[in-house]
Design goal:
By secondary structure, the chain is mainly α. Helices cover 64% and strands 0% of the residues. The protein contains four helices and no strands. The longest helix is centred in the C-terminal third of the chain and has 14 residues, at 53-66. The mean pLDDT is 93.
Length: 67
């Protein structure tokens, strides 16, 4: 369920970077989102549609660790 929430947030705002989509959709501080993205091995400037499913699972884990 948590992975689905992160995926929904990542795709909620088209044409935005994953960092900006997650920051606004999940109402988390940008620094925390960026830290989780980097820890998951994801470029914060990437767009959600370029990421494989397994990275969303890793990202969800990192977000949960940091929040």
């Amino acid at each position: 369920a948590e992975v689905a929430r992160v995926v929904d947030a990542a795709f909620a705002q088209r044409r935005k970077t994953i960092r900006n989509s997650l920051t606004s959709s999940l109402a988390l501080p940008a620094a925390r989102v960026e830290e989780a993205l980097i820890a998951a091995g994801i470029d914060p400037a990437a767009r959600a549609e370029t990421l494989p499913v397994d990275l969303f699972i890793t990202l969800t884990d990192k977000l949960q660790e940091l929040t």
